[in-house]
Amino acid sequence: MDFEKPAFGLQYNNDAFDATNVLLGLKNDNYELGKFTNRLDLLKIALFDFWVANDDRNHNNYNILIADHMFIPIDHSTIFDGGRLGSPLAQLSEDDSILTSDLAFTFLNQKTKVEEEAFKLIQNFPTFVNDCNEILPAIIERLPEEWCDDKALLSENISSAIIKNDIWLNETITSFSQLIHKFIR
């Protein structure tokens, strides 16, 4: 193959399955559902998607693999509102969130635990954002030059869009919280 830009690959996992294919066999199987130790990670994935405006993981397209009874989020190619970094981003709608999916309704069936975990995530969200801000320069520095010819601009665009943008951060928490309240009712 001839690539114009550097590419990367990940090791194929024969034991990983698309969540869509696994879901049908799991519905109402409490024994199998009980094997999932990270069920509440769906909330983390949902909050992350709200924060980075990932509009590709939703009720029609989970973009989640399952391996060893764990969720593995994949395909983040449409973060920043489908690649609109540098322009104002739009918050996800309810339909754009994994929280409105059959996957969420199947795995997040313990409303009290969902509410408690969502509260913890919201309380820790500023810490998560700060942690990402601290490692962002190292991540951007490792990008191949062919992927980004202006790393300083990329860093500034990310920072101004989702890290140091108090309006965006508040809207993220508000959107996530509103959807959580609808979910747990």
Note the beta-strand portion. 5-15%
Class per helix and strand makeup: mainly alpha
* DSSP E strands, number: 3
What count of helical segments does DSSP give?
A: 8
Structural notes for this entry:
The chain starts with 16 loop residues before the first strand and ends with a helix. With 185 residues, it is mainly α. A hairpin with a 2-residue loop joins β2 and β3. Strands 1-2-3 form a three-stranded antiparallel beta sheet. It has one domain. α3 packs antiparallel against α8, α6 runs antiparallel to α7 and α6 packs antiparallel against α8. The model has no long low-confidence stretch (mean pLDDT 91). It has eight helices and three strands, in the order βαααββααααα.
Question: What's the topology here?
Answer:
Elements: E1 17-18, H1 19-26, H2 30-33, H3 41-52, E2 64-67, E3 70-73, H4 79-83, H5 102-107, H6 111-141, H7 151-163, H8 166-184
Antiparallel strand pairs: 1-2, 2-3
Helix pairs in contact: 3-8, 6-7, 6-8
Organism: Pedobacter westerhofensis
Protein name: HipA-like C-terminal domain-containing protein
